[in-house]
Write a structure and sequence with these properties.
single chain; mainly beta; 12-stranded antiparallel beta barrel; 12 strands
């Protein structure tokens, strides 16, 4: 655990170590962010609550292109909690040129409905933009990583151990394209392969409503090839949210 904390601290500090020039944030700005919020509440014969929030920040610091991401999801059905997930990520990309870079990534997830109290992953490697135009981007990232998981009390009692850790091969494919001047399509694939294969796919379409306000429709699929005994391999999430860019 000490190795994980040390490595995470190094990765989080790395983006602040260099300077030059980049074009991660469009225009003349060096900082941009998207704030996203969605909610569903029903009352009467059925009482449900669903809340989704997300803050995605991008920052240029010389040759570094940095991303800071926070996500939260909460679901309740008839007074019973049926879903809860918190996720945080920080990534720094050091550009060698307009199309190739080194990355360092650290993320942490809390999702008790998977049987794990938390999951932390750190990784580093090489990224390349196979397509990099004004309207379309396709980037691939690969590299080694390390994953640490802590089981909840019930799962730990059944399994006979309370933590899992392994080295993983980390890969990302990120595709973005403008459909029209006011709409954008994004497809993200993330995979970590070690003692098991864990992956996440996020498909989204964003359409501007007025000014900096947009509507976003997203389908997220999470996969674990070796879930705990009473859990399923695949989780899906469909969201319709409002997005504000600043």
């Amino acid at each position: 655990m000490k190795k994980l904390l040390t490595a995470t601290a190094i990765l989080m500090a790395a983006p602040f170590a260099a300077h030059a020039g980049a074009d991660f944030v469009k225009g003349d700005r060096t900082f941009a962010a998207d704030a996203e919020l969605g909610a569903t509440v029903t009352t009467g014969n059925t009482e449900t609550t669903s809340l989704k929030g997300r803050l995605d920040m991008k920052h240029e610091l010389g040759n570094w292109e940095n991303q800071y991401l926070l996500e939260a999801l909460y679901k309740e059905d008839s007074g019973e909690e049926t879903g809860k997930r918190y996720y945080g990520l920080v990534q720094g990309n050091y550009k060698f040129s307009d199309v190739n870079y080194m990355f360092a990534n650290a993320n942490h997830e809390i999702d008790p409905f998977t049987g794990f109290d938390s999951k932390s992953t750190i990784s580093a490697g090489y990224g390349y933009k196979f397509v990099d135009t004004e309207k379309t981007t396709l980037a691939i990232e690969v590299g080694p990583g390390y994953q640490y998981k802590r089981l909840d009390d019930e799962s730990a009692a059944e399994a006979g151990y309370d933590t899992e850790d392994s080295w993983v091969a980390h890969g990302v494919m990120n595709f973005e394209t403008e459909i029209t001047d006011n709409s954008k399509f994004k497809q993200l694939f993330v995979a970590d392969y070690g003692e098991s294969l864990e992956g996440r796919s996020e498909t989204s379409i964003t359409a501007n409503i007025v000014g900096a306000l947009a509507m976003k429709f997203a389908v997220i699929v999470r996969y674990n090839s070796e879930p705990l005994d009473d859990k399923k391999s695949t989780d899906t999430e469909t969201n319709m949210t409002l997005l504000y860019s600043f």
